[in-house]
Specification:
Helices cover about 45% and strands about 30% of the residues. With about 190 residues, it is of the alpha+beta class. A six-stranded antiparallel beta sheet has the order 1-2-6-5-4-3, with helices on both faces. It is globular and about 40 Å long.
Length: about 190
């Protein structure tokens, strides 16, 4: 009984340890939200890449949130507002740049000289992506982690389904109404 209580206590701590900012963003825009734990991240390493295993070794949990900016009419200043909210949660901006047409930011939260949390923000004209990491990753490897998740076949399928979900729902509704509709993909 004592072990169950300790497990529940630890589980509730881990669940609350990630940022309120990410949680609020996900609630506000109802985006796609995926949770990765150490074992799930290892499953993404389909080529048994030792560098990838080394890269994720200090990650306890990661939350991936993707918001379709066009669908939700995300205001222009939302990205800056997010960074401000993360700073209010004691995150410091460590790196800023552009990768593949996306703005890219890395923020970290330290406690007693050790990194306890890492936020990777990416934004382009169509989407806002947040990787909220409980744990740490070497800064020079952050873009590699982001690309691995972005290019993972399983995660990629989920992202494509999420992005194309509205078109498919509209098509299905119209077909159910007895009208055959061809939906064009703008891409």
């Amino acid at each position: 009984m004592t072990r169950i209580f300790i497990f529940l206590l630890l589980a509730s701590f881990v669940a609350e340890a990630q940022t309120k900012t990410t949680e609020n963003l996900d609630k506000k825009y109802e985006g796609m939200s995926l949770f990765f734990y150490k074992n799930t991240l290892r499953m993404l390493n389909q080529q048994d890449n030792k560098e990838f295993d080394e890269m994720i070794k200090d990650i306890e949990k990661m939350r991936f949130v993707m918001i379709d900016k066009k669908k939700h009419a995300v205001p222009q200043g939302e990205y800056a507002s997010l960074k401000k909210s993360y700073r209010a949660e004691q995150y410091e901006e460590m790196m800023t740049g552009r990768i593949d047409g996306r703005n890219f930011e890395i923020l970290v939260r330290e406690q007693s000289g050790r990194v306890k949390g890492t936020i990777i923000l990416a934004s382009d004209s169509s989407s806002l992506i947040v990787l909220d990491i409980l744990g740490r990753i070497a800064l020079e490897k952050a873009s590699s982690l982001f690309n691995t998740i972005d290019q993972s076949t399983d995660v990629s399928k989920m992202i494509k389904n999420f992005v194309s979900g509205d078109k498919e729902k509209k098509k299905k509704r119209k077909e159910e109404d007895g009208v055959k509709v061809e939906v064009k993909d703008d891409n």
